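During the first year of the project, the team set up a workflow for recording each protein of interest as an amino acid sequence followed immediately by a discrete structure-token representation. This format lets reviewers and collaborators read both layers of information side by side without switching files. As required by the reporting guidelines, we include two representative entries from the current panel. The first entry is reproduced here exactly as it appears in our internal archive.
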Amino acid sequence: MPLLRRCFYPLLVILLVISPLLTGCDIPRVSAEDRLFLNLSVDFLGEYQLPKLDFEGAPVGGISAIAYDVNRDRLYALSDDHSRLAPARFYTFKLNLDTHLDTHLDTSGQPHPKIRDIEVEKVTLLKQANGEPYLADTIDPEGIALSPRQTVFITSEGVSKTGSPHFIGEYTLETGQLQSYLQLPERYLPDPSTEQTKGVQANLGLESLTLNTSSATSTWVEPFRLFTATESALLQDLDEDPAIPPKNRFLHYLIGEDQSTLIAEYLYPMELAPFGAIFNGLTELMTLDQGGHFLGLERAFGLKGFSIKLFQLATGAATDISTYPSLKGDTGGIAPIRKRLLLDLESLDIPLDNLEGVTRGPKLPDGDCSLLLVSDDNFNPNQVTQFMLFRLKGIKF
């Protein structure tokens, strides 16, 4: 008998024997959509409202972004004061959790830590290249991210009435001194003419910011990556039809020791604004891993108050749109960032304020990762600086 036939017959017998067993098994099916995303979930642990207070002669408020330093166990909180009430600045906060596990258990028996209080330890003024603080209405700080080289990156939406530009700057963590700016593509810069036709919309610019590393560790090997996105569409990307959701742009930078490069842009598809909304936008991003997964926070405000949604994002299959001068009209040939709703915060059934900041927080006593959201009170006595604590399941600390 030929060798091929001698090998084939035993294999055929084995297949005939096991095929009924295979057809009787419930083999789990994973959809292509599921494979794009991480298996994440969030559990709400509680909120804390920072009391209205002054620190070193200025009101603490307008917190538009936060970043957690795992090595120092501190939060860096950026104020979006336009250098009006005090020079542009960020704060160092100490987050104190109440972790008496025997007294705080949720309905499933898991530890249920809460925020006991938050201490303001330090204020750091942002300084321009000449070492001077920013003048009033020359900066609108919105995003902050902690880098592994003892610096923070900060985005400013700019101030249109004074002609102050949008920017991404790198500042020393200890002193707040400006080190350098990242170069923004010309298409993001508003026209010098009075009738704007391109660039970021006023107060809808680079609101979000995140790096692919969240701790200031000396062992991190450069280069690293920085991600930001517009809060809404660029003027040249706006569709006239209000039924078409805004087409935001998501920027991906490679940050090296001597040079930083914008290597890609992606289409971020916003949700349509809820009925009666006055404004609607993407307020924050947070990196989840090195594989192109993020969290995205979308916030709207209208007749019913604040509407806040937290999405998981997957950028792996998105089209690079850096060569597209405009996104108006049909974008069927462009693969956008994929989104999956992780949490609609209205389902928590608690009053929500103007949530704008997101960061991974300290490790919880049971080893899970914590997630923190913070609101910008706009220095309004009728609003609050609201910290919301969550357990984030599905990723390692």
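The second entry, processed by the same pipeline in the following quarter, appears below.
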Amino acid sequence: MSTKLKLLEIFSLHENEFISGQKLADMLGITRNSIWKAIKKLQDQGYEIESKPSLGYRLIQKSDVLSGEYIQEKVPFPCKIHILDCVDSTNDYAKTLTDLSVPNIVIANEQTKGKGRLGRSFYSPASKGIYMTIAFEPDFGLDKAMLVTTISALAVCQAFEATVGLGPKIKWVNDIYLNGKKVCGILTEAESNFETGKISKIILGIGINCFEQSFPDELAQKATYIEKAQKEYTRNDLIASVAEKFFDLLSNFDKRRLLRDYKSRSLILGEPILIFGTSYDALPENGGRGVKARAIDIDENGGLVVEYSEGRRAREMDTITSGEVTIRKDLY
């Protein structure tokens, strides 16, 4: 761990307390000059650190300026970080990257054309959320690739629990909910090699609404941001935690444990739902009423097992796997 991260941990444990440069140096086993240089770097990264003669230093406020260096130091897996002030879409930017010898993480402070599933957009105002894409070349087969969205949804939940102190729920397959409203969306895209028939690149976009904001009218009743966090955090902290959890789940892949942990955080299992989309019913924004069913289980490939509740298929079981399908809780 770098000197800067060690200092931040010490400041967090001694909130609002001044700590002398000599004491910090003794605690870390380095010189006072090294402490001063590390403090200066933290200040340059936007951390508000107060200095007083004979008293020392104290951290007044954590910075929320995106820092690739900070994130890189916090993620214990090889990766390359790209920090952008504004971009049309982090997913589209990630598609232009050619060197994926290690996973690349693209992070933007703002998106002008954030992408969601089914051609929808993802609202991405400046400094209000996390807009990130993980791009990598998979070294595994299609069976594991089919579970990347499942892995990422679980990783986001685990990062929330560890970093924010809140326990969100997953609405199959890729939406994360807090207090009944969407706080995060995930969009997984893949590029295939036609010669080998294998997936050559996975583009995993994750958007999280972090801070208080006014949503457009069409989202006001559906979306939310992180409220009443139980732990102090920055976007850098949450980004690093999401990446760490994702890479850990991927490298220590255990399908049985993955599905168990995913299902334990499900918003819809056992609940009545409405199914929209290809071969079912038009999307709700296009006037669709949805097909009534009950969510029964998640199968070994991440598909949603349902039991239809009406019509000629009533009581019939089915497994939904299509990315062109969306579901909603049936509240009636």
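For the second entry, the following points were noted during internal review. The chain has three domains: 3-61, 68-263, 272-329. The chain has a mean pLDDT of 90. Both points are flagged for discussion at the upcoming steering committee meeting.
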